[in-house]
Amino acid sequence: MRIAQVAPLCESVPPKLYGGTERVVSCLTDELVRLGHDVTLFASGDSVTSARLESICDQALRLNKEFSPHDAPVMTQLLIEQALGNGRHFDIIHSHLDHLGFPLARRNPTPTVTTFHGRLDLPELQPVFREYAEMPMVSISNAQRQPVSWANWQDTVYHGLPQDLYGLHSNSEGYLAFLGRIAPEKRPDHAIEIAKRVGIPLRIAAKVDPADQEYFKTEIEPLLFHPLVEYLGEITDEEKNDFLGHAMALVCPYDWPEPFGLVLIESLACGTPVLAYRRGSIPEIIEDGTTGFVCEGLGEMTAAVQRIPEIDRRRCRWAFEQRFSVARMAQDYLRVYEQAIGNVCERKEEAMGFVSTFSSST
Amino acid sequence: MRIAQVAPLCESVPPKLYGGTERVVSCLTDELVRLGHDVTLFASGDSVTSARLESICDQALRLNKEFSPHDAPVMTQLLIEQALGNGRHFDIIHSHLDHLGFPLARRNPTPTVTTFHGRLDLPELQPVFREYAEMPMVSISNAQRQPVSWANWQDTVYHGLPQDLYGLHSNSEGYLAFLGRIAPEKRPDHAIEIAKRVGIPLRIAAKVDPADQEYFKTEIEPLLFHPLVEYLGEITDEEKNDFLGHAMALVCPYDWPEPFGLVLIESLACGTPVLAYRRGSIPEIIEDGTTGFVCEGLGEMTAAVQRIPEIDRRRCRWAFEQRFSVARMAQDYLRVYEQAIGNVCERKEEAMGFVSTFSSST
Hints:
Two copies of one chain form a homodimer. With 362 residues, chain A is α/β, with parallel strands linked by helices.
């Protein structure tokens, strides 16, 4: 199949540091190539891929110091023109640009499928989904699509990661892990409070965005001076395997409708169970009592720590292999692509009448 | 002619307060209606027009307190889809949305002309103009198009205003006027310095944007406590007529490549000469020695104040009527529209071959 993958220009593919969308696009693209498909990746020029790379800028935008934020809309407009607008013949275009690709996707004879990577509960998105109601869309969890459940959803495709990126760690080193961003909605304060209540060490590996510096300084930093709490800052991909793998459990007291938590499946890949609040996609990812515990709040999560030994770490790894492998993700997407191509062929036959009318009337 | 005018959603048409682009679109639209054309105006719902109004939002975005800046790209995408994307049959679409309308304009069989209202010397715009090199564009001064002189410019159309919006004031009340925004590139400090050097009162009618508050507080406010200087704050459209009309001259020591200074022609409409630095479009608007003085810098402008009596105020009004009336602007644009329609008809004939090829090959 001739497949175009269209990634945002914000981060390279894969990202140099953080960037969930670009990481998933990278895994999917390389797996599709491995399966023998003819894949073109539209992404920043510093991307690394086994597919054919097409790029309109040398460097991803966020970490490029020469880049002004005013450039982003211009660069994105050019990317969309290049990837979704020209006469190239792909069998399918897979856009990861949210609704921004819709205007040209609608006008492109090549079928285009869009995966939404963010939250969809923002009121300003409703008129966009109404306008482009015919666009085939993919959600990354069933919870994500709730606010616009009436849109043209083709399927939910959970993220997947390569089998060998992380390995099963059979024994933990007796600490709880918090991994990701320090931000109010991630409730790192709850993670710290739980560790103190149960008397088990907590290791925090997290970045602090400029927007969250104030929150970090005033709310979180004062909590870090405690013998049970260790703050490691931002860690690399290589360090993640052991950081997650040696933990008793990953603690995710996230208090917002997380559309998909990539870190949760990274933890499962290491064999490490997950404790998380029942929000957004969490209950779809974690099987309560089997790969971790889905909790209502702070009290319940504190109690759940005592039950971590009930969880079989091999079962966590097995769940990752069964449900969150890149192979499964690629198969799911190929099914979505075939479906979209089939639908467009049907529409093309209908449209033939329109085209002849157009050419005879002008 | 069936004409679509597409205005930005930032301000209503005409704007409630500031908003040069929306003011010009308003004047042009009403004049085209007066001339008997069938005009549709795409603009915010609080616009007031004699044309048919089509709107996707009730209120213009900038002054709407319920509006979040994140909505702007979404609303603009919907506006472009509505105005440039659907199958309506206009003879011509006139876009005032800069390059944002290009992707759908390129794919719309209706000819679309775009007027650029801002400065074009930003490097990130170059690849956009290269990509959409076939798009017919209109500049608002010859100076404006210098950085992209190779683009598909159809014409320069100077702004115009209705004859009766401002009237000739034959006698001045002996003060200099500064009107517009307090901002570093407008050099209000130079205006104040000139007034002090020549010993003539200066009246300042200007708004201060949030981004310029710091500059105002530290650089300008301390200069205002002087018997010759009077700061009036922001004034209404109604007050402008007398504020400009009673001035000896409008002082415009602008130190940036102004693409077109609407306030300069408002001043001429009142019969008030203009002193301005030789930057951007200024020498195209002001006839040196006839409707004002085009100066190289502070010293030359200070000297020019002594020569204001040489300028015949009736000659300023006459220049406005001849060169900057809305009637002249509308005629210029109608000529551009006819030219664009003609070009598209030629291209359509060529395209007929393409369409038949397309329908026979699918």
